[in-house]
Amino acid sequence: MINKILFLFFALALLLTACQGREATGEPPASEAAPAVTADSFATSQAPADQPTGSPAAASTAGQVKAASCTVVSTVPTPGPTEQSLFPPVGEADWVHGPDTADVTIIEYSDFM
Amino acid sequence: MLAQLQADNPQDVRIVYRHFPLLSIHDKAALATQASEAAGAQGKFWEMHDLLFERQAEWSGQSVDEFESWLADRAEELGLETEQFEADLNSEASADIAQKGWEAGVAANLPGTPFLLINGQYYGGPSDYGSLESIVRVIQLEDRQFTECPPMTIDPARQYTATLTTEKGDIVIELDPQTAPLAVNSLIFLARNDWFDGVTFHRVLPGFVAQTGDPTGTGLGGPGYAFDNEVSPDLSFDEAGVVGMANAGAGSNGSQFFITLGPAPHLNGGYTIFGRVISGMDVVNSLTPRDPQQSADLPAGDKILDVIIEEK
Predict the structure, then answer these.
(1) What is the pLDDT of residues B214-237, one digit of tens each?
(2) Is A78 on the interface with B (CB under 8 A)?
(3) Under a CB-based contact definition with an 8 Å cutoff, are residues B80 and B43 in contact?
């Protein structure tokens, strides 16, 4: 099997590899293993934290703080409207195993060798 | 591998096989493709597909002629109509499928095989079962994620406790809405929406932390929103029983949180402290150790059954 080239990473691929990268550093668990929600997309969709010290304002004007301090994020990136897939949708010519209603469709391009 | 993932998630996973026979490298690639199509014509594509992969060692060194006779034997084994199989194996239509598959893959610039698309996106990450299963879990979680941040409903002047009912007993956490209103409000919101029910302590490192709050059990899942750190200089991870928010950098707090199992001063400043265990530390210490980053073959882990919030 030729299994090479990583381009155009699906965000989840990044997450997993990021996770493994950390593992590869070989640091002792207690220091490398700061509790992480290894969710890259979370980090990238955030504004920089401007309140590193949990200011008293956070407690007294919670409503306002909430608006500024929480954002909706998506785990899985949505392709932009102008992006066109190079790959045809699942059709008659495909060998398919599993229901059309499945949440997850994995298309594999493969050789038997 | 993919077949197993499909079998284990029969309603949620659909696998699609597309031929990309590497005609320029493998002398038997076309014939193998044609064999699967010929079997497919008799309703046994997947059987032939599995057999070709499982018994690759037997045929990969054969000449094309030897392979063709090997295939005839396999067709018989699979209970195929052998004359029909051999006719289809060498038909123009089968050869055309192999040729077109190759051309399409080259035209799409596929870097090699196998090449995976997950919900239309190229996936170049690790393709072991555990990694792919994690992705399935994270995609499934989308149905449960929130599309808005939780409304601020707590009153920082009041006292709140969260009782984690687990398979091993109850853990009672006194929450700190003064220091960490966002974290406390979120935890209460999630608890009241049953987010934590059935969620595993997926990462339990003795002496360090017990981490939970991700319904996928992988450490990759979150609630669909993220909020800022609320770090107080007055608080530190100085002993067992301190409850902190897990994050992937400041401002990435979601639903995952952890309980310290000992002093963890290197976490000070980077993670919100929003509570402290006031009862049930024995339960915390009895949680099944597991480290999803170190091992693929993990014990099941202990589940939270319910989180009950009390307010006074």
Answers:
(1) 999 989 899 999 999 999 999 999
(2) no
(3) no
Which residue is closest to B6 within chain A, CA to CA? A98
Token look-up 């409850």 returns B243
Q: Which residues of B touch A44 (CB under 8 A)?
A: none
Of B113, B248, B294, the CB nearest to A1: B113
What is the count of residue pairs from A and B with beta carbons less than 8 Å apart?
A: 362
Q: Do B4 and A93 touch, CB atoms closer than 8 A?
A: no
Q: Which long-range contacts (CB under 8 A, 24 or more apart) does B290-295 make?
A: B290/B201, B290/B202, B290/B203, B290/B204, B291/A29, B291/A33, B291/B203, B291/B204, B291/B205, B292/B202, B292/B203, B292/B218, B292/B219, B293/A19, B293/A20, B293/A22, B293/A23, B293/A33, B293/B203, B293/B219, B294/A23, B294/A29
What domains appear along chain B, each with residue ranges and CATH number? 2-124 (3.40.30.10), 160-311 (2.40.100.10)
Q: Is B20 in contact with A110 (Cβ distance < 8 A)?
A: yes
* Pairing verdict, β B115-118 and B257-260: unpaired
The interface predicted TM-score (ipTM) is: 0.79
A88 CB neighbour count, 10 Å cutoff: 12
Name every chain B residue with its beta carbon within 8 A of the beta carbon of A65: 181-182
Structural domain boundaries in chain A: 8-44+60-79
Q: Whole-structure pTM over 0.90, yes or no?
A: no
